[in-house]
Design brief:
Layout lengths: L8 H24 L2 E3 L1 H20 L6 H8 L3 H28 L2 H21 L10 H20 L1 H9 L5 H26 L6 H22 L11 H4 L6 H9 L2 H28 L6 H29 L2 H22 L6 H15 L2 H13 L4 H25 L2 E2 L13 E2 L1 H21 L5 H13 L12 E3 L2
Parallel strand pairs: 1-4
Antiparallel strand pairs: 2-3
Helix pairs in contact: 2-5, 2-6, 2-7, 2-8, 2-9, 3-4, 4-6, 4-17, 5-6, 5-9, 7-8, 8-13, 8-16, 12-13, 12-16, 12-17, 12-18, 13-15, 13-16, 14-15, 14-16, 14-18, 16-17, 17-18
Length: 485
Amino acid sequence: MEAGDEVSPAVQSVSSAVDVLKGSNQELKKLLSFKVYKRRWFVLLLLCLLNCSNATLWLTFAPVADQSAEYLKVSLEDINWLSLVCMVVAVPLSLGTTWMLDTLGLRITLILGSWLNMFGALLRFCGTPPGVGFTIRYPIVMFGQTLAALAQPLIIFTPTKLAAIWFPDNQRATANTIASMSNPLGILLANIISPMIARTSAQIPSLLLAYAVPACIICFLATVGIRSSTPPTPPSASAEASSSEPFVQGLKLLMKNKAYLILLLCFGAGMAVFSCFSTLLEQIMCVQGYTNDFAGICGALFIVFGILGAGILGLYVDKTKNFIEVTKINLSLTALACIAFSVVSLMRDQKIAIAAVCSLFGLFGYAIYPVAMELSVECSYPVGEATSAGLLFISGQVQSVLFIILLQSLTTRIADSPLSTCGNAVLSWRVPLMVMAGLFSFFTCIFVIFFHTRYKRLDAEEEAKNGTRPGSGSTTTEHSLSINT
């Protein structure tokens, strides 16, 4: 055919058909590349162990505050700062952590977190040798606690990122739930193990050794076991575009996102209330004569029912994607449970009522955490998962410090309390508990009334699916392949 000749319609049709087929084959190849790997469960297990260990280090002293204060020769306020330091240190490091996760990846972040966690646990133990002559126990323990605090954001920011880049969309909420709930599981273990081992102040070193050994083992497993930050191929369309927005640009987008800002404020307040409950529970309960063992049982019920509720909700939202409805309903029920706790915890001889309220508080409250983390990604996509979920954690930490300082400042000393098991310092928590319940109820109302958003990540995946297979009613994850690796 000469250069000046026109191309026939038949040739044009064939050429167009070839182009369409090439494009379709490329899209089909891209779709079939969404595979999941069995090793994702091993990475999830390591994250769970590390998260659990770090949580036990955070809350080691709260269930045995009186014994710890006696052994370290400090006040109860100083013992509370061993928990508060995790919140204070985490805040300035949180933005750096979100940058690390979205830029350097999971592997470097988790291995660094595991080493800091181990060194913190070992330093705490080395700083508490038995003997009257050793007088600098508290500063060394505080330094070890600070190292563990440095590890906390590296670990606790990771579940949402891990779920997004290793798991398909029909398993993301479940994976996030499992990884996130390993943190309250660590708090549960701390509430059980600390009172069990440290029945007297002389047993504090044994308690710290019990927490240091698992931290060393987990550090070794993480160092040799995590081989890559991402799987060889992405499990979903959104995983392929994970962290598509630059870090600074992502922060700017979040600050302009009304729905995300409401979630940031209200969910952060919820996290602050849970931190107050976990940190101050023993000090609140002892005023009415309840023992450390009973306070530990209440803390355990709070977490066990929380993990149960989170598991049920994780499976439910994976199937239905009703993130907003679930969060609003559970936040409202949690506010009611918080009000009930502020009343019954001030009554004597009400063990059954207190245990029941703590169980409901955990069932509704802790269950929100992984769902809210997923919701933060849905309302802020395509901002990186670590950035959107990490800022929620920062908000919770900042508000936790403010809430605990506020509640402690509202306490008053009680001159005569014959049933008290608190030791020398007996404080009235009536006003602080009412303030805590009022603040939580206020932020719950704000969230229920004003929070509205569309699920941007799910919409993007739906658009990618429709662009690949027009008219198809299935999702891309239905074509995912499970392979051994």
